[in-house]
Amino acid sequence: MALQLPASQETEQGEPAMKELYQSADWKKEKHVPVIEIQGKPAKDQSVRILVTVGKEIAHPNTTEHHIEWIELYFHPTGEKFPYLLGRATFASHAASVNGPNTSTIFSEPEATFKLKTGKSGTVHAASYCNIHGLWENSAELILS
Do residues 39 and 50 lie in contact, with contact meaning Cβ atoms separated by under 8 Å? Predict the structure, then answer.
């Protein structure tokens, strides 16, 4: 399921609408897609951990020139109009140093854990941003027991 963004239209300047900027694919074949792992058995009003990773099956490059900059996670409860932003993780270290690009041994890895408590089932949406290949998205159903 794709992020619920504005309808597919062009802006007045002839640019694509927001919805058309997000890409998606099978995460087992595409290194840019955020992988959502809902951990444990979610229950009503109990905390649930959600792990989001980019490059789980196929490693994404992590260099000064090519890297994942951030991951965002949203939760859209069943029957509600809008999703809630749960959080954003920013990855700022990609081997750059005062000596230039790719001269450091310090790297941020594109993985983040979010914790959610909800009284409703719904859809978890993740978005990630690659500095070269743009916006990517994925979603998963959160079913409460």
Answer: yes
